[in-house]
């Protein structure tokens, strides 16, 4: 696409934004947002083209010219005619009085021969469509008259009246025939005082006014006009807008035509203080590889956490990041994630509404006033982090190596048990010796987990201190730049601010303040419009952003990441298709294609359209928010069952968290009062139950219909205690109000009744609306319906959703599937201890060999080394995924189980806190458990008893304070080794060696079925018979045997002696 096409596209999107933006529309000329209002007396001569420009009184003209010069961004001068007077319906939130022009023009004041004139462009009239939409019936087709583009004369009144009548019958047009004679301000105010609800009149009147832009609109409009005047565009901006890369990817230095190649440093995901999924890591790596990349984040998949990690990773690379969204809600969540990762609040600079702007000014004031202390030297911290990385790398390699060996050892043990050949016994003895000599895989994984926590703590502290170090350096060397920035953000008008921004080298400020968050419309208040000012710009919730709004932010970017979900809510456009076609024709764009469809394409859509490498798109696939039953329908219907349900665990499905509440009710004009009352009654009862149980969940109430949500909001606030509303954080809104939000418990009011037809279901059948509506709940959801399930419209999403909920069999677990021998024996022994187990249970997108549950504790077993299903092992990255899902994984090798069955069971019970399960005590025959007794070998050096494994459990949290160097040294030196009774490193006596050889000789198969002995109250454990008599002995008599996890050192003579005996 030619370079000039970029400017054409910018001007096109600017025109669409102006025509579509609600903030640029009159609703009441007497509102405080309208200034310097002056009604035109006599007859209309400007719109009728009788005068090319309208003369102004000197005083009035001078004042308008000053406003036009000083407040280019903040205010706009408008000339409006054909005023609509009346009152909006009660559902309109705000001042309902209407006195607004139906047609208006952007105007400009000129000074000619010491006379002031008002000028308009007759070819660019703007119809007040947002106002008309409140007056007209829903579903109305909108059309715009062509004749108004050449001026509106008295002869056009009939056409104008006919056109308006074709749009709506709600407006009385009789007074229109007075045109071009104009009514004065007094006449208009008199009409307003007598108006009744639902009455609208069209009056022949014209006025000049200065309209204050909303903060969001003023910056975007001004920035787009400035960008459209530029000759050269940034590379990422051009690729996003046109889909084509410039011949040479380059960046433009401010105030210069000198170019340098754009490069971002390669990502180093290991620097992030936290666990990342594969998709999150890929998204972070894509930032440096592609000028434009995309992150697709379905509901509850950690979009905000990923964005926070992106910003941190770029910061550690010495680069700057700007994070923007359409509203403060989304960027507030990102700010919270950054605060949680780092434990500090002043890491990011916030721009936004008046309160955020005030905080920014106060922060800069404090810096310049000396309320700031220098940081500690970060060189030593960097060295500590590098040492910690080397230690982790060593531990992770050790874990992988041991897993590989565990497979080999398991095969050797199994073959010796099955074949009994000399060579297989030698290999089995070697496997046994190697297995029992080292720490278990779980102990190594525990060490890795703990050292990751140490590394994350060091990284968080280093990030905090390095920011202070950079800030201190800027204060020392570039204080004048901060002072200039202080004056710029305190400027009273855009002209003064622009003059101050021109004097600032913003790259210096970004060294001290590299991470910024704000809304798209508020960037102009604190950040100058400079090409490629930030190394990275992230657009959050991009499906809710129109294309025009994001262009000023992307213009400031070297690389851009667009984040959102095409299956969730999109932005709302008031632009008619006819108006859009006219704008496309005016800007030489093809209106027959969908390529430049402003009305339906979001910023997320445009990025996806112009990204040509599939690898530049990352899809977050780990769902953390909801219980599996609450996200199941959305996962299957909209996401092709690709989401890994991180909260899906066995044993929690006894009662469904999804409740369908059928009852009576009647739909009328978007409301169902009976259903609203039923919902409120149920809610009051639930609140009483929660209070009795001491629970305080957050609660949301959602209806797809605006009128129903307004009714619910009114009933809630009339009937409930305000303290309860605050305590339970109760929110009532439509799907649009809940986008990006969530609650512990959600109430849905679907509103439709059995008399409703397709028209009422049409809005709910929008996939983005329905998807957002049903995926806001974390723990429980109540769906209120006024129609039986068989009466719901069969071709609706609601019908599919209800049928899915009715069909769900949440207890359909894989309990009857066959176990292999290894799985079977582990499961049986744990069952006798009162632990419930599931085989090949799916969690976080993978099937675990065994998932065990006792009370509310869950542990997963990764069985390794037994030939068959249990032979392979999960990669360490998969262990980390399970960790993020809140599941502790215990890697259990077949060889260790074969020789230390009792010790392993004891470890698992300890982790499940299930030691007190009331099961029969086991008796241990001394002669058969010699290898599990504590070694008395005099040649082995004594070792101190080790701490309990639970003390070093991977889920334990470190102290919130920064680890001191001594503490870090201690943590590195004193790595966890195991549970009580585990004493690696000791050697066993010859008596024990002999016992071990006896076990090999007899070839007792530990995996023989034990159903028969179990029926008699006897179980087989470590080749030992446990009898029912153990129940009658005291705890002192049948105390748990002391376990020695040390290797057995077989002597040559013992080996030869054992091999002379018969094999199995």
UniProtKB/TrEMBL annotation:
UniProt keywords, alphabetically: ATP-binding, Helicase, Hydrolase, Nucleotide-binding
Pfam families for this protein: AAA_11, AAA_12
CDD domains according to UniProt: SF1_C_Upf1
UniProt keyword annotation of Electron transport present: no
Compositional bias segments (type: Basic and acidic residues): 1054-1064
Cited SUPFAM superfamilies: P-loop containing nucleoside triphosphate hydrolases
GO molecular function: 5'-3' DNA helicase activity; ATP binding; hydrolase activity
Positions with biased composition (Polar residues): 953-966
Domain DNA2/NAM7 helicase helicase: 277-569
Domain DNA2/NAM7 helicase-like C-terminal: 613-783
Region listing for Disordered, in residue ranges: 932-996, 1027-1064
Domain of life: Bacteria
Designated name of the protein: DUF2075 domain-containing protein
Organism annotation: Motilimonas pumila
